[in-house]
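Notes from the 1:1 (GR / supervisor)

We went over the backlog. Supervisor wanted to see one worked example end to end before approving the batch request, so GR pasted a single chain during the call. The sequence is below; no edits were made to it. Supervisor asked that the structure be written out right there so they could see what the output format looks like.
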Amino acid sequence: MPLFRLVFVLPRRKVISYYGDSYCRIEAIQDVSTFELSLQFKTSRRSGLLLLAAGMEDYMFLELQNGKLQVRMNMGAGEVTLSSSLGVQLNNLLEHHVSVILQDSKLTMTIDKLFPTYVPVPGADEEELNIDIGVWLGGTGDLDAPFLSNAIPPFRGCMADVKFESHRFDILNSEMKDCHDTKESCSSEFEAGDGEATSFISPDSFISLPTWSGLSGEGRGLEFLMKTTIEDAVLVFHPGRESDFIAVGVVGGFLKGVVDIGKGMQVLDNTQVKLDDDQWHRVRLQVEKTLFEIDVDSQASSLPLDDSESLDLVGNLYLGGIQRKMKDVFHDSGILDRMEEQITSESFIGCFGDIKVNQKDRSLQDALVTKDVHVKCEGEDYDYYDSEATTTAAPVLITYSDSVPNKHHCYPTEGMPEAFRNITTLLEVTPLLVPEGGEAFLDINNLSPTFDLNAVGMRQSQIIFTLKSNPCNGMPKQITSFYQSDLEQGSVLYVSTDSSDQENNVIEHIQFDIHLGLVSKWNNTLLVKILPAPVKISHLNPVEVEAEMELFISQENLQATVNGHMVNPQTVKYVLLKPPTLGSLRLQGSELSEGDTFTEQDIHNHDLTYIVHSAVESVDQFQFRVFVGDEHSPIYTMPITIISDPSADSTVPLLTIENLVVLQGGEDILSKKHLWVQSPSSVDFVYRVIQDPKYGRLIRESPPGQPRFDGGIRVFSNEDLQLDRLIYKHDGSKTDSDDFHFTASDETSVQTDAQSSVNGVFRITIQSKNEHVPVRVVDKSFNVVRNGQRLLTTDVLQFRDDDANFNDTQIIYAHEGILSGQLVSVSNPSQPLFRFTQADLRDKRILFVHHGADRDNFQLQVSDGLHQTTTLMQLHAGEPYLRVENNTMVVMDHGSTKTIDTTLLSADSNMDVRDDGEIAFEVTSPPGDGRIIVSGIEALKFTQEDLKKGVVSYEHNYESLRSKDSFGFTVRSKGYSQEGTFRIKIFKQGYYSEPEVVTNKVLIAYEGEHTVVDQDHLKVEQSDILPSEMVFTIREPARLGHVVMLVNNSDRADAPVLDFIHSFTQDDVDEGRVLYVSASQQGSDVFRIDVTNGFTTVENLEVVVRIVPRLIPLHGHNFTVKEGLGMSITTDILNISHSFYDDANIDFVVEEAPRHGDLRYQDGTLQELTYFTWEEVKLGHVFYMHDSSETTEDSFTLSASAYEIERHSLSVTVGITVKPVNDEPPTLTRNTGLEAGWDHMSPHL
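Structure output shown during the call:
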């Protein structure tokens, strides 16, 4: 199965959001002696109830308390408590997995599969946990039980995959679940940052925050941005003791406040600024001992208070509404009845932003309970220009989903540039692959425009990508937008911060908009696939060590694997990233520092030790990464718990130490929350610096009224820490950390040994300055009617500055003059403007008056007060026009309602349209399977202002079975009009399933020929989906060939035409119309495709092509044989040189037999062979036999054929050299006789 299938076929997780007063109850009645409980959670709250298994007397709590997990269980023999490991932070908005197991009289809790703790349970083998009432998740609702007296608050955050099993039976799945005020999926509000806007969307909406306590000597302060169209609503309510309370609301569109400090209700009106105009307004509340003041956009109203009384507030601070169940309580006390005499108690509908309580930023992360609120203001980002204060624009919306995003298409309009007319996808998006805990560059291969930049006259700097969502598992470093040129230059880096130690791929969706000159493409999604690290830690067990002792770190504590397997320990290298602070890590006695290494073999040899420098109970840790060859692991943290010697003095001091963050070149107070040492008997500790900071110094603040001495100090006390007198000042160098070593001792102690002193290292994180030049994020040409006028707004020109705490509305624009017109103030058109702010653009206070050339470019200087840049405005003047700018087909669920806003439907004009209400849409052809709703009422008319507000929606008729709908419309403004059709695609539940890849076989192609890609090679199907609707898109073309389409039938008289294609359907494949044409080159090729049913997509499907020789590559080699003997015909003589044919059924045909011998089988059969197989050759069954004739050479000719695949070879002749043998008897060739004289003959003859 391909890798991407492993990701997409994973079952959907069951994730539930709990909002601080939510709960689920399961009436599961069981008696269990053993169990295994597991769940995953994510929260920023320090405390909250995750699960309660309740009986009449027995109980089991799983709860988060002060950032640690705790199990409290009573099975009848008394309460047993088990806490998670020290040093493991669990309220850090990361997803954590917890398992709790009761087995063998032992209760074990494991966090993130790495940090186990356990406690014995006496009597567990004789008792059972009697769950008589049921199981509660997230809260206890109206449950009344004696063991709830010390219960912690309800949970606020996300929980997933809750399982409570006993003997492999899931107790929770056996019963129905009754949930109150929960929602499926993990809400983005839990991760909302300071200053981020919040939408209140229903009559039950509200936010509750902790008690609004007054600052010492400074009273109480509350401020926020608000935006609404509602005339009457409560904004702020806080109850107090007895009759005390304070409330602020909107009455008739104006702000009104009421307060009772014990002498009756007093009323304060502010009628200077109208609030129901759908614009952002800043509201400030100040309650002093003698004054109650409310301020709207710097227009203040105040009311004197009797300083003999004070406002005594208790309970929670409510924003935007009051919790429904608490209204009854407040009515009973009479407070709400009195408030309703002046201010309604109905909830606010609109947006809040930039909330500050007593001058401190507050966000939804600080909320105790919320209901029906959304992160970000629906339909727009918010900015607010305030000459007296600096506000921060809302960060972008964070979304995370396991689903695969739909592929968005653009539909050409008449006003679209010619270069865009023939394309439906402006951008090809390819997933980014990132190793777990690693990083990867985002480049042109991931985000690539599908059109020619030169053809449309665009530069790379005109293509801007704007992030709409922050990555959950990583981040592009320090940016929220970037250019096409940044991708080309490899400047955008994604750094994985995922800490889940996952076993499978993690898929993350990053949403972004892209602005391509005149064309914008909204709501795009980049998939980031975080690949599991091959190197992982299989054993990471926290260690405990007694104070001032040495500990050997063994394989039981620390061990690594590669892809789940053990490897040579000498090749496993650990790199120390952050050394311990309360002790030292040593290798064979030598202390290890940051960047030093040790190996798995060192751990095996017991050469790695940890030595405690402190004499107190505390928690230490060190961070490391493991390398094996070129592969590495994520970053891991080894926690070390330092415990006191049981036999030692119980008065040993306790050390608390937390990291300090300081801005580069700046300074910050080092207080008691960062560093503190105390013993059970004393807090009079003095610290002596034994190693100074390297990149800064410690300073002691002087008493009030005296100049501060900025020289470094080396001695300070707990009193300095408690009174915020100790300061760390950074020297401005480009460093990211600093530290100093210290020893702390009790000056009142008579002891002189180490029991009364503490050694440690205090670490400081240096945060770099934000020094950014403003960047243009909206870059459009400015179109105006010839010799006419038009507002210049942020719809055409907008910059963003990434400096922290900078409000983009304060960006300043300046120019020296424009040849083809002038910029003037809307309020005074006779007065030219040469300097204005981005707030002026946003608030539509800048007007351009045209006179002169139809085309012009003018330069603007842009400044944030420190940095300057320039931008070029392109001016186009011409005839008046009104045209549809956005008309995006919407995809929605069957029977649901979909909001239609300006991202889906909008019009644009070069005329002097001052208000979006002047652009009117009239439905000329109503939808056939639904209806248009405007502000809650069925209507056939609406305006562009309605679209911007998000009050226009399409409501689908549930009884309709059709998958498409549409309505026709005409848009009009100032006598001009244009018609259009808005299309709607209805998504049924069944489409969530993924198309099934039935067949994807290797395609065999012959060099220089075309091969049909048929359903035997490629088939994807899905029930209820026609083959013609299953569309393949080529995302990466073949390298050694082309995919083409046969566009006419081959039985016609004219030759068939082959067209290059980028997409095709399963029907084309089934009908044999898709072909692969290979080049005259052998090798392996591949092309990658996405296949979609129109809703869900299988991505990156790989089709492998094997290009083989057109002819069977048969080779013959000459051989030598002795006269009259034979030779086996082996693969050394006859050879097929390609593996594809080597495995095929090959037949040899003897075209020309040997003249002086014959080919025969080796089994003795004398029949001459005219046919044999390749298999017989490989087995050595065929041989040549010489006929013993007196010849010196012979030969035979043959060819190879593979009839099943219709392939053959060229004829090959094999030459044979015959080596003669001396096997003939001697022959008399001459006999002439012998003559000799008798006289000369020897007598002995």
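Supervisor's comment: Residues 379 and 948 are 6 Å apart (CA to CA).
Batch request approved.
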